[in-house]
Structures are given as C-alpha cells and as structure tokens.
Amino acid sequence: MNEKTYERVIEYLKQQIQEGKLSCGSKIPSERELAASLNLGRNSVREALRTMEHTGMLESRQGKGNFLVNMPQKSLGNVFSMMLLTGQSNYREVSRIRRILEQEAFVQAVRLKNPEVLKRLKAEIKEMQIPEKTAEHDRRFHQELICAGENQLLVAVMESLSGLCEEEIAHVQKEAKNEDWCQIHEEIVNALEEGNMEKGLKWIRKHYNKIDDTLIF
C-alpha cells in the first residue's frame, strides 16, 4: 500500500462525514464498496483500513465490519512510546507535559465548579488510602481531574501519556509514605472546592516535583 491509497481512503471517509452520511460509531462501506468507489484494489483498501484501525480511527468487529471510532489516544500513545524507546524523549519530559496539562485542567475545573467532580475525586482519595489500591485510584484521580476540564483533546493527550508512566509512578508511590501521597491529593481537592486556583496549582506542582525527584532515569 502506498501513502496515496491511505490518503484517498481517509479523504473519502472525511467527505462522507462532512456530508452527514457517516458519524462516530457508524459502519463504513465494505472493502468491496470502497474499492469500487475509489477505483482501487481490494488489497490496497484492506491495508489502508488496517492502518486506520492501528491508529485508532476504526474498529473492526468480527462478522460485522469496520466502524468509525474516536480513539486518538491510541495513535498518540504509539508515537510517544516510540519516542521513549528510541531515546527522543524521556520520562521526565513526559512528567513535565502531564504537569502542564493537569494544571490547565484544574484551572478550567475551578471555573466550571461542578460538584459531581468533587464527589468523584473525594471517592478516589478514600480508596487511595488503602495501600494495595493506591496505584489504581491515583490513576483514576488524575483521569477525573483531567476530565473535569471538559476538553476532549486534552483528555486524549493525557490518556496517551499516562500509560507510559505507570511503572515509574508506582515506584514513586513505594518510595513515598502513603499518607503524604494522599495529603497532596486532598489539598488539590480542597483547593478546587474553595475555588483557590493558586493553591491548587501549587499542590499540583508539588505532586509532580515529587515524581520528578524520585524517578530514576
């Protein structure tokens, strides 16, 4: 498959979306139909669809066909993972980007003042206090905080980065006292509840400083 084949399939599907014929979750035309519409070989179309599935644009369902999905974090995660593997980036840079994104999400969350967000964050902290559950609920806490900013692009980027650091963050949690770790998260939630932007940003910085100071590169 050459790049032009892939681009032609992408452009065709984009046109179908713009015309209102397809949307997220829709089943796309079959390989045979795409090949006929675009005057391409079925093998080329098949490879193009596989590439789109790998990048998170399509989902293949056995016996049902291919469906449009919206999983940009999948392709972003692959890109970021490859950058780490090839030495083009490192975990400290990942941590810095996560810090920036989370601070932006916190600012938006303060402005939106959603009480349901506070309830969910407090519930995650409660579970986080159980040592064997700390890692899982720490991850959920930060997912909730990012989602609180109500910016889907930010959520996608953060999710693609979070999976890269799970082992490293688990190492940080082992080094830190559980009560200290929970306190940082409690202070972030307190600041959100108070609408105190400066205080919340300070504790988010403290959280990521602890990660940066403990990570081994």
Summary?
It comes from Mediterraneibacter gnavus (Ruminococcus gnavus). The chain is mainly alpha-helical. The protein is built from eleven helices and two strands.
At the first level of CATH, the class of the largest domain is Mainly Alpha
Overall domain count:
2
Helix content: over 70%
Strand order across the biggest sheet? 1-2
Largest sheet: 2 strands, antiparallel
Average per-residue pLDDT, rounded, comes to 86
CATH architecture term of the largest domain: Up-down Bundle
Q: Could you tell me the CATH topology label of the largest domain.
A: Four Helix Bundle (Hemerythrin (Met), subunit A)
Organism: Mediterraneibacter gnavus
Domain HTH gntR-type: 3-71
Protein name: GntR family transcriptional regulator
GO molecular function: DNA binding; DNA-binding transcription factor activity
Structural account:
The chain has a two-stranded antiparallel ribbon. It is elongated and about 60 Å long. 72% of the residues lie in helices and 4% in strands. A hairpin with a 3-residue loop joins strand 1 and strand 2 (65-68). The longest helix has 22 residues, at 91-112. With 217 residues, the protein is mainly alpha-helical. The protein has 2 domains: 5-70, Winged helix-like DNA-binding domain superfamily/Winged helix DNA-binding domain (Arc Repressor Mutant, subunit A, Orthogonal Bundle), CATH 1.10.10.10; 74-214, Four Helix Bundle (Hemerythrin (Met), subunit A). Residues 3-71 form the HTH gntR-type domain. Keywords: DNA-binding, Transcription, Transcription regulation.
